[in-house]
Amino acid sequence: GAMAQSQARSNAITFSAALSACEKGGEWEKAMQLFRFMAQQRVELDLTIFGTAINACRRGGRWEDALQLLSMMSKRFLESNTIIISAAISSCERGGELERALKLFSMAVQSKVESNKIMFSAAISACEKSGRWEKPLQLLGVMLQTEMNVNTITFSAAISACQRAG
Hints:
9 helices
């Protein structure tokens, strides 16, 4: 009854707080262990919990885990948001999977996920590391056309991509 529901909610809150502490502490392995345990315990895995786990993957450059979590979200009919997609793109970038990062960005844009500066910057940063100069300039152009607030970091990443390409 009501007591069981209350217990389940407090468990979810407790687990979520522990997961967040692992993520913030850069302990992606512990975060993933905790996430799996939460799933086994049938804790309701919501958007916040998935987002925290994917962000832990970002910190560890664990692109495989990040993409697996995105897939799990999709199977549970949870819609990704810009923050989650950006973290997954950055996971791919940090893991050296630059083409996957760009593919994820393209899929997000095509599926009408609300794009923002964070998502564009993650994609531009992935381009910078791959030595591709055309795509970052194209993305920067889109950002400027849509009057997105472009910051120095984003400009620097685009310039750096051009420099790397020669």
